[in-house]
């Protein structure tokens, strides 16, 4: 479905190029008719030829309305557009000498455009139709009285007409095929980007399934440990020892935290999504996330500036909370002495900047953040944190950028549309 929409966008751009080419054709025909009739004094059926030009103008107006009011342009529509152009050219040639007209080779321009824009069956049909028109114009046409010229070489009037046709065709082909090729290259680049994004999202889904499965499997041993600890807390031999009692309390607290983490994993994977949705504000969500992280990690120095205003209601998303925590963890690991966080509102976008005073990111990671298993950490599986961050942000319509502050270190900038945070479509 995604690749189809990409192809549709390319076809719409190509339709616009055909419309522009038709404007050039209409203006060129008017100029040629005027020059031949007024300057060369060759009698032409002006009313009929001008009617064909008016038809091209009307067709272009209809095509423009079609372009603006519909998203999808099919191969059949492009084929019909080219067929109508061939029909108009055939009528003009019929009215001005038929196959003897030097502009007969403009049929080739239509075939070349069709070969680039259309499917195989359409192109061969166009070749058959233009060939039939060529042959038909040799027998059926309206003669025009040409002035006799005894001059040879380039100064022969027919040769000059052929040269003008060649020059016109060459210029139009270079101009429009270059633009059509650029459209196709952009489409191919977009398709490659979408394929890469699909592969990354499939990787994320697999990791989500593994995390969800691990969370389910951890539930049983955690429950067993909870029962054992509860039994130990009731044993007189253990409760009389204050140090052991404190250790048991600490173990219960850590066990409760493990259960909370498992619950969070299941919520983030979607198993409890939609139940008890918590709505909050951006400021409160950021304050709570940062406060929880600061309590657990206890950084040596931490600067937090929540300047998001005016506030905006959003859904408390556990996945987004984990994104922010991952970025903060990376910053703390790179710079244990200091981490800074600044939150700002820019129009309908949340901008969150996390800065550290570490060694910074290598150029390859900073240029394309979020590639899996690309990290400066020398351990297996490193680099998945930033990969997950980028994919969650992409799902919400946001983005991640990495910069190098003047004072050294690294700055990770998260941008998120508020529509995505509030449960709407980003």
Automatic annotation (TrEMBL):
Residues 213-420 form the Histidine kinase domain. One of its GO terms (molecular function) is ATP binding. The chain crosses the membrane at residues 15-36, 42-66, 78-95, 101-118, 123-141, 161-182. Its main location: membrane. Keywords: ATP-binding, Cell membrane, Kinase, Membrane, Nucleotide-binding, Phosphoprotein, Transferase, Transmembrane, Transmembrane helix. It is a multi-pass membrane protein. InterPro entries: 2C_sensor_his_kinase, HATPase_C_sf, HATPase_dom, His_kinase_dom, HisK_dim/P_dom, HisK_dim/P_sf, Sig_transdc_His_kin-like_C. The keyword Cell wall biogenesis/degradation does not apply. It catalyses: ATP + protein L-histidine = ADP + protein N-phospho-L-histidine. It is found in: Cell membrane. This is histidine kinase. It comes from Ancylobacter polymorphus.
